[in-house]
Amino acid sequence: MPTYVLGLIGLIALVILLFMGKHVGLAMMFVGFVGVLYMRGFNVALNLMMNTPFGTFNSESLSVIPLFTLMGVVCAYSGISQDLYAACYAFISRIRGGLAIATEVACAFFGAICGSATATTASMGKICLPQMDKYNYKRTLTCGSISAGGTLGILIPPSVGFMLYGINAGVGVGKMFIAGIIPGIILCACYSAVVFVVCTIDPQAGPKGPKFSAREKAKALTGVLPVLVLFVLVLGGILFGWCSASEGAAIGAAGAFIFMIIKRKFTLKNVLASLIETAETTAMIFLIMLGANVLGNFFNATGLPQAVANVAASANVAPIWILIACLMIYGILGCFVDSLPLIVLLTPIFLPIVRNLEFNMVGFGYNVMDGVTIWFGVLMVMLMELGLLTPPVGMCCYVMSGVAKDTPLTTIFKGTAPFIVGIVVAIAIVLSMPVLSTWLPGFMSR
User: What does the alpha-carbon distance between residue 48 and residue 32 come to, in Å, rounded to a whole number?
Assistant: First the structure.
């Protein structure tokens, strides 16, 4: 039996364990250990379990994960979501569906300091849902717009998805962050266009809101200036080379605590809650990385990644169709498996295939290979967003169901359906124009 067949058996076993509800990191670790045990014996498998943790975590670049997570959690406990929403709504309240559009824009700004889709959905849902109910928005549009806006948390930098992808793909995390800015703006615009179309077809779905004076708009805007300063300082520093991603993360975390003090939210309860949530999230991510590395060693031993690459290379089709096939696999699996494990698990399998395809990375700079890697990473994260809105997993929809307890889950999934079209359009735009995701990182390179 060819060894790559063992890799396929291991992959099937992993999927079964995930459907059984087992922890993702532990499931990957178990399959990898048993696979190496079968192929190489107990001593090799034991050495793998002893050496992999040090090899996985002995990297200074991993410090961006707890620091950026801390930055987002602290900002969430500072009440920033309320200020962002109020500022956005003050400027577009008179547009039909203005509350829903304000939700998308506010989610984009909140994602710029959070990095988590579920956290963005939960935080913005608690603020936006009562306001939209107040103006008689239909629950399908309300829950759909909040759930969709939450997905921007893993595309707008800083993003946990980009952190994991950058570390596993061997490309700078800072470049991945910068690469997500333009696609994030495009996706936010697509979501807003979906709201406009929905409200044009059904004007009762999103009635117009009250009119705000210039003074009220100015007051609302001043409430988010500290956040904008923090965002520009961190990402601007990374973009212009003033600091590395790790240093930018440290600046962002320190700035978040300063913002918490300014907002008078710096209490022992909030600080402890922020630290505990950061520790839990970081531990979850690190356990996934450890399990994926153990499983990756098993897959490499079976030759499965190379076998998949050889099949792709022998296919007599245009490179773009091979890329689309890889992305479709990501999209389908994303409907059943959480996004973070997929990023860590499938990147070593599909990235070599995409790198060997001949694409024109116009606008990236001098390193075409980095351009392909970054472009593929942005597309992959966007497809992970698709999985956050589709059943049966649809994590953002489940989080929204916890916020809107009186709304059936089927109503929430029905509300997200139009926004799935928005994601598909945004993915098609970035897929057809790689420069949208590679130009800013290329500027960094120059």
Answer: 9
Give the C-alpha separation, 33 to 24, whole Å: 14
- Chain centre distance of CA 182: 14
Cβ neighbours of residue 84 closer than 8 Å, sequence gap 6 or more: 106, 109, 110, 224, 227
Picking from 115, 77, 92, the residue whose alpha carbon sits closest to that of residue 285 is 115
Q: Which ranges constitute the DSSP H helices of 316-408?
A: 319-334, 339-356, 368-387, 395-403
* Six-digit token string for 415: 């509300």
H runs (alpha helix) in 41-137: 42-57, 64-77, 80-92, 98-114, 117-134
Here the tokens at position 253 are: 């975390």
Instruction: Give start and end residues of each alpha helix (H) in 202-244.
Output: 214-222, 225-239
Are 364 and 371 contacting, i.e. CB atoms less than 8 angstroms apart? yes
Residue 107 makes CB contacts below 8 A (sequence gap 6+) with 120, 124, 146, 149, 150, 152, 153, 188
Nearest to 168 by CA among 49, 7, 285: 285
Amino acid at 126: K
Query: Can you tell me which residue has the tokens 């295939």?
Result: 353
246-284 pLDDT, tens digit per residue, is: 888 888 888 889 888 888 888 999 899 989 988 888 888
**Residue 131 confidence (pLDDT) above 70:** yes
**pLDDT tens per residue across span 217-239:** 777 777 677 777 877 888 788 77
Q: What is the pLDDT of residue 428?
A: 93
Q: Are 439 and 363 in contact (CB under 8 A)?
A: yes
If one counts every other C-beta atom within 10 angstroms of the C-beta of residue 286, the result is 17
Q: In this predicted model, what pLDDT tens digit does every residue of 296-324 receive, in sequence order?
A: 888 888 887 777 767 766 767 777 888 88
pTM for the whole thing? Answer: 0.82
Going by C-alpha positions, the residue among 201, 191, 107 that lies closest to residue 425 is: 191
Q: What is the pLDDT of residue 292?
A: 80
DSSP letter assigned to residue 337: S
Q: What are the structure tokens assigned to 270, written together?
A: 């909030």
Residue 283 C-alpha from the chain's centroid: 18
Rounded to whole angstroms, the Cα distance separating 205 from 215 reads: 29
Alpha carbon distances (Å) from 173 to 158, 170, 265, 415: 9, 9, 30, 34
Residue 444, CA distances (Å) to 177, 181, 220, 364 in order? 11, 13, 33, 9
What helix, strand, coil percent values describe the chain, rounded to 5? 80, 0, 20
At 364 the pLDDT is: 52
Contacting residues for 82 by C-beta, under 8 A, at least 6 apart: 127
